[in-house]
Amino acid sequence: MSLNLPLKCFAACSAVLASLAAAQSLPPEVEAALARAKVPREALAAIVVDAAPLTNGKTTPLLGYRASVPVNPASVMKLVTTYAGLELLGPAYTWSTPVYVDGTIKDGVLTGNLVIQGRGDPKLVMERLWLLLRRVQGLGIKTITGDIFLDRSAFAVATPNPADFDGEPLRPYNAAPDALLINYKSVVMTFVPNYTSGLANVSFDPPLANVQMQSTVALTTAKDCGDYRSALAADFSDPFRISFKGSYPVGCGERVWPVAYADPASYAERAVGGMWLEIGGNLKGRVREGRAPAGLKSAFEITSPSLTEVIRDINKFSNNVMAQQLFLTLGLKAGQTASFETSRNVVQNWWRERFGEQDLPVLDNGSGLSRQERITPQGLARMLQTAYLSGAMPELMSSLPITGIDGTLKSSKSRVSQGWAHLKSGTLRDSTALAGYVHTPSGRRLVVVAVVNHPNAPAARPALEALVDWAVKEGGK
User: Which of 153, 310, 344, 376 is spaced 20 to 30 Å from 182 by Cα?
Assistant: First the structure.
């Protein structure tokens, strides 16, 4: 997609933000919330400024505090990745996953191999994998005499230890990107009490080949659900077996628990093999890594949801691996193979063309699940102002959680800002952030960016919410 887009906000936004020195005090309610959280005011960097300064004549931010300081924005960095995606790929962009038949089909038998080629689809979930394999059967294939090859060569990324970032390897948010990312490399367990048998039935999605999964667990009479996950005493350490040594409280009713699979490197092979058997397919060989043969035409391809739909999942629910899939796709479009280094160069070049060298972000994987990523609040505010005046504004804004309504901000208790703000949230152990758009009762639209970097940062979230409330009230006017 061409970058020859209107830049009318660039000069004006830069001039607006240059006047930050005139607005360096914090609202008393924000100061008080920081004090209660035992977080010094110097740990906060923030800006509140009109979203469209050229249309309403405003030239001075309502608030600017340490706004030129580079900070770790946590998941708020997803705003840069998703807006860059909208501009560089376009809101209607989709990912394709081609399927190749390398052999001959006769009487329901493929004498040869099947190849599934990943190209970065961020949303190849279980239901879409089922549809893909049903389409294979629609070609007249019930038995495959050879192998099912999974081509994941489009991404050149190292496979990290999922425990490296925060010691939580079973958290789905730590899933690594993959050219053939299936179901976020996670297993979804559903627990349903069976009062007659005194057991809770357990179902697992997707089915994983050669993995034993315990289908029932003892049911206790406890009315309080409490920490049911600990009560289950689940054992995920063995990639060939998922078991429970505890029990399930009857008071929990039906519950769904997603976990990252213990051996993510083999997840795709197990998921494809398990699903193929589940729908009645027969495989003489095995599912394994392999590339699509050169020159072979695909039998068909499945298409992902549009980028507009994908960024809604990324921002509303702060999906890290989907953000990384998008980030790598930006690099893939620039060459034959994607890497984080290539994508960093692509996004930084885009930033330079749109906003110049000022406030150039420090990028890592584009998701905010990083200790290295940095951006200034005023730089992010300039980007959000430019986005507000662009054709991509409706798609970007509608992808953001609405305060007190949905996504990661559904649980917000603020009565002042409920329904009045579209904001991306971000949280790491030493960073908490909010950024996006605030609507005021007078019809004014504001950009708000606020980030706290401090060992006690999560406790400072009420201070950021107080700033949003202050913005809704237009600084107490």
Answer: 344
